[in-house]
Amino acid sequence: MSGFVVWFTGLSGAGKSTLAAMLSAELRARAVHVEVLDGDEVRTNLSKGLGFSKEDRDTNIRRIGYVAKLIARSGACAMTAAISPYKAIRDEQRAQIPHFVEVYCSCSIPVLTERDAKGLYKKALAGEIKNFTGIDDPYEAPENPEVVVHTDKETKEESLAKILAKLEELGYIPRRGGVAVAPGAAAAGARGLIAPHGGELVSRWVEGAEKAALAERAKGLPVIDLDERTESDVEMIAVGAFSPLRGFMSSKDYLRVVREMRLENGLPWSMPITLAVSEQAAEGLRVGAEAALRARDGRIVAVIELNDKWRPNKELEAQEVFRTTETKHPGVAYLMSTGPVYVGGEIRVLERPVASPFPAYDRSPAVTRAYFAEKGWRRIVGFQTRNPIHRAHEFITKTALEICDGLMIHPLVGATKSDDIPADVRMRCYEELIANYYVKDRVLLSIYPAAMRYAGPREAIFHAIARKNYGCSHFIVGRDHAGVGNYYGTYDAQELFNAFSPGELGIQPLCFENAFYSKVVGAMATAKTAPGDASTQVNLSGTKVREMLQRGELPPPEFSRPEVARILIEAMRSRS
Question: Residue of 170, 240, 355, 445 with fewest CB within 10 Å of its CB?
Fold first, then answer.
């Protein structure tokens, strides 16, 4: 199929970037190569230095149009998501670009004002901001666009469906089912692995002469001290596990993630990745300058180019992300303990903030992807865990493996609560279990060196996106994923995946109910597959199991493999 351009136009906040991200995910799922030219990113790179006069705006649009034409000429799809307020310059691009599809995102000013987290529309209406498009600078709506979406009246999914229908009608894209590509699993290179989130695996390491020069310059920069969580965040950004993030979030990304679970460019993202500093430290930091990031052991491990500094509403963040403001919640307690000012910007990383606790199992996303490609795996299911694997976990991982080529057991080994089972104990349990009860050639044990946030449903989405970056096409979501206490419903995490349209996340969630040993069927099962009530189920509580282990008693083999239970008993005895 020939290349084409989808030109989104509409006022600020009308949903252009969101729909572009949703559409690009869907097209990639149909094996269409897509490049998105977002207005803010173009302003930062291609059109840096241009202002907002009519002449400068026209120049900006001409540059976008020229790049979009080149992309389409190569046979790909180019999407633009800039306001492009003037009809004449849009028509000029239409005349120069074959296969041009204009999508007008229509939204009323009152709705845009209500959506605007930074209050720009209110300031413009009050006269505090001049030359604001749609208020005191004109926006000329298209007269005959190929598609009109009313984002103040339609759901995102309804708007996306309109655009897809038009592209199918024009013959620019294959109809769903017309190409044998799994939803959300568009080919990433010749080996067919799922693409990283955002399309590119980020790496923020610096090497060689660049590293030496940056390390020398860092000696004279103001310093930001990292804590255990931000140390792990630096590493996860550096290796690409948090792709497409290239550093700590700016206020635009942060506000949109907190309120809508999307980055500023519309890409799904559920957790704020932020860098908090004290009042005193904030005074010495200037937007546009650099600062050194110092690990807890005193080493300078990275440099951040500051592009934003702001005071967050932590009450809002706590309520939206953790569903509570109670400091009894470990995520909220951490949030409230950090500095009152956030800073954002891209980072360049000199060295790991912390040595790997398990070097033999430490694999970056690039390494796991290479491993999967070498094995010839296309469908890989990821299993997130911060607990030993008992029979219920074994059952759901093996059930998932029946429809996949391989399983990656991916335990979180970063910061966790003090009463969680230590990572070294858990790792011994995983090793023993894999050695005795899994087909070794179908399982990869690899660590996930991130900090635990205990954000329940939002963290489940976050864990899935990260595993997509590691190369997983599927992700297991069990009951109470990333939960703590009684803050989340048993299956809230599974339900939250429905907030995104098919293909948006790009990784397929596999949702499982609580598993147990059924005395009726004589095997592991769930309520979907085994009759009987609770009296027919071997389903022990965590408290009950801990009490048995502390007494040196092995739980029933229907609940836990004896090899795993013995490791846990030994660990409890050594700690007591």
Answer: 355
